[in-house]
Amino acid sequence: MNFKFPKDFLFGAACSACQIEAGCKEGGKGEDVGEHFYTVFPEKYFGGDPAKAADFYHRYRSDILDMKEMGLKSFRFSISWSRIFPNGPVEICQAGIDYYDDMINALVEAGIVPMFDLWHCDLPYWVIEMGGVLNPEFIDWFGTYAEVCFKHFGDRVAYWSTINEPSINIMASYAYGANAPFMKDMGAAIQACHNGILAHFKAMQIYKKMNLPGKIGAVIHVEPTYSESHDPKDQYAADRRFAFYAGWWLDPMLKGHYPEILKNDAYIMDKLPANFQKELDDNFVKADFMGVNFYNPNHTKHSDTADMGYENYKNEFMPVDDYGFMYYPQGLFDVAMYFKNTYPGTQIFITENGIAKKKWGNLEEERKDDYRVRYMREHLREVSRAIQAGADIGGYYCWTIMDTNELYAGGFNYIFGLVQVDFETKERYRRDSWYYYQKVIANGMVD
Ligand code: NOJ
């Protein structure tokens, strides 16, 4: 079998502002949730002080030249809302606009296609103070911010994503306390998620009115969910879990309604506002594409006792990386086929995929990442196989271009980057995987 890619396939890498920029007090930036809550409870952040990240804020021009040398076709990054609106939803910070303007120019000059998220884990802290995503005014704040970004950068940004991983950044942050505002209230979570979807539509509507040359969608964390057995109860539990986790976003964004399988599910649906379908109908704009973050599968079985009616079970046959992600490259093929069958006509991008090891403290050894080379090869093969089987996949973005601050999920303790960052000096070093990816891109195929 030959693992080729189409000529215009976007071989990319991704990262986000709050995970590599630092420069937290520069350029008029306002405080974001990571910066704020790191000072309140550093233990929740594993010591991951956002101010000590890779300093992309000052080094983006040389980092982008390095991407160019690798041959990278596209870079997925995010705009920090608190650099554009530092103090509230009204006053715009010109220095923030100038900063991203120059970064986007540097990408275009390097021949690298920019893909930008409007919100990737880093709400401004003022949003939380003013009631967070739970406050329906969030929809307008987000719309205003989106409009400013489209106006200033929309002539050059080819792909926009409104929200990255809302299953974590909204649902799990309000229902299970995963990220700010660290709430544990399913009722609040469902309401916040609904507002998040309306905020996504708001940005979509504004973008479409502006007649810009790019495309706009969102980035969803998709875990193919497998059932423990043939028992219809387990199968139903797996489908329901998938619907609640991923379909909850994909169906409204691509079809304008919540997943059918949840329709009669009082535990979830009764927590939505009474007129939720009218709000979806009145505001729906179909996403142009979907970004898919793929790391691991999920295994689900029926449960009589769990609130949600399902629980996870362990699959002993799948190895797990240091970060806790199970390896199952074929899951990526399954996800691509799921899109082909469920949302025909929708192009997807694999917007994140990567593997992490826990740092052990020897910088030289940590550059030899044959485990990442193998991981990339196996996953890229699945992408190629899916394309050959008819899936419409426009690109693949390795997570991540350089070592990150994993914030509330692990601070600086994990190695995710094609480029190593020495966090003492901020010097960059290419890992073996950097050279491997360079070869893949140059050959337009994976071995
Ligand atoms: C998904 C998130 O979008 C990203 O911010 C995070 O670093 C990776 N997963 C790895 O956990």
Looking at this protein, list some descriptive labels.
alpha/beta, single chain, binds 1-deoxynojirimycin, 16% strand, TIM Barrel, 8-stranded parallel barrel, 3-stranded mixed sheet, 447 residues
Q: How would you portray this structure in words?
A:
The protein is of the alpha/beta class. The protein has a single domain (3-446), classed as Glycosidases (TIM Barrel, Alpha-Beta Barrel), CATH 3.20.20. It contains 15 helices and 17 strands. The strands form five sheets. It has an eight-stranded parallel β-barrel with strand order 2-3-4-5-6-8-11-13, surrounded by six helices. Strands 7-9-10 form a three-stranded mixed sheet, with helices on one face. Strands 1-17 form a two-stranded antiparallel ribbon. Helix 3 runs parallel beside helix 5, helix 13 (330-342) runs parallel beside helix 14 and helix 14 packs parallel to helix 15. The radius of gyration is 21 Å and the shape is globular. It starts with a strand and ends with a strand. The model has no long low-confidence stretch (mean pLDDT 97). 1-deoxynojirimycin (NOJ) is lined by residues 16, 19, 121, 164-165, 293, 352, 399, 404, 406, 409.
